[in-house]
Design goal:
By secondary structure, the protein is mainly alpha-helical. The protein is 77% helix and 0% strand. It has eleven helices and no strands. About 2% of the residues have low confidence.
């Protein structure tokens, strides 16, 4: 069977599903909060750029290196939130102590993946892969702040935010696939290998349910929490896999796990100990 090398598919079909199913869900469950087109386009562009460059980078770069870069997405989101945020709501602004959280998580994931990478002898990577990962990192840093700004100004429900962003991600992805001619190559591949549609459908359904949880987190908490939870989930998955399949893990990797959980505890304690301003 031919190799499937069209990462844009991982945007077109999942985000089409998120748009259509999400819009039906939103209309059935209450009044839809319409969001400004400009804000949605900015946010959708960051989703598309961050996801597409990440998926293309996997083709040129060893997976542990990709994971190490993506683990820094929480740090980039916090740096934007602390230093360059567009959000004016004081309740959503990030304090400088969040930089410690982002730094600890990034260091912990780096330690964990670097030593697994060293064991596998896969240190090589390409310049193009590194550039793509850097672009993805920048987009990941800007995205939570754009989402937090819309949440602060327009108070949408999670499903409203989700399906309207999904709509524009789908539009941008279709345009990209037509310009690059990937659309026709994808159509030809699907025609020759129709069973791939089962995989695409499965990915689309899982992406929809994951997005519902992610947008709930976005709507309920500060903008650094969603990338924080996603990063913690990744290391949880790896640790469970290690025990389940009896993989070996060395002291430095355990140190990485401990550092990540220290960051989680620090973030929780710092939020609980923060003085609350009395209501006027």
């Amino acid at each position: 069977m031919d190799d499937f090398k069209y990462p844009i598919v991982l945007l077109i079909f999942p985000y089409l599903t998120g748009w259509l199913v999400g819009s039906l869900w939103a209309k059935k469950t209450g009044e839809v909060v319409e969001l400004p087109r400009k804000n949605l386009m900015y946010t959708a562009a960051m989703v598309m750029v961050g996801t597409l460059t990440y998926n293309i980078a996997i083709l040129f770069t060893s997976y542990p290196v990709v994971i190490m870069f993506k683990s820094c997405s929480i740090l980039s989101a916090i740096i934007v939130g602390v230093c360059f945020s567009r959000v004016r709501d004081e309740k959503l602004k990030l304090g400088t102590n969040k930089l410690i959280v982002g730094g600890l998580v990034s260091v912990g994931i780096f330690l964990f993946n670097y030593y697994s990478l060293e064991d596998q002898g896969e240190k090589g990577t390409s310049l193009l892969g590194l550039i793509l990962l850097l672009v993805s990192l920048i987009a990941d840093g800007l995205l939570p702040d754009f989402q937090a700004e819309m949440k602060s100004l327009y108070k949408p429900r999670p499903v409203d935010l989700m399906f309207q962003i999904n709509k524009w991600v789908f539009v941008f992805s279709i345009c990209y696939s037509l310009v690059t001619l990937d659309f026709w190559h994808i159509s030809e591949f699907v025609w020759e290998h129709p069973t791939v549609l089962y995989d695409i459908l499965g990915i689309s359904c899982m992406n929809f349910f994951v997005q519902m949880f992610v947008y709930y987190i976005i709507q309920k908490f500060k903008q650094h929490i969603a990338p924080f939870v996603i990063t913690i989930r990744k290391i949880f998955s790896v640790v469970i896999s290690i025990f389940w399949f009896s993989h070996a893990i060395d002291g430095m990797q355990w140190l990485g796990v401990v550092v990540v959980f220290m960051a989680a505890v620090f973030d929780f304690v710092s939020e609980k100990c923060k003085p609350h301003k009395p209501s006027p």
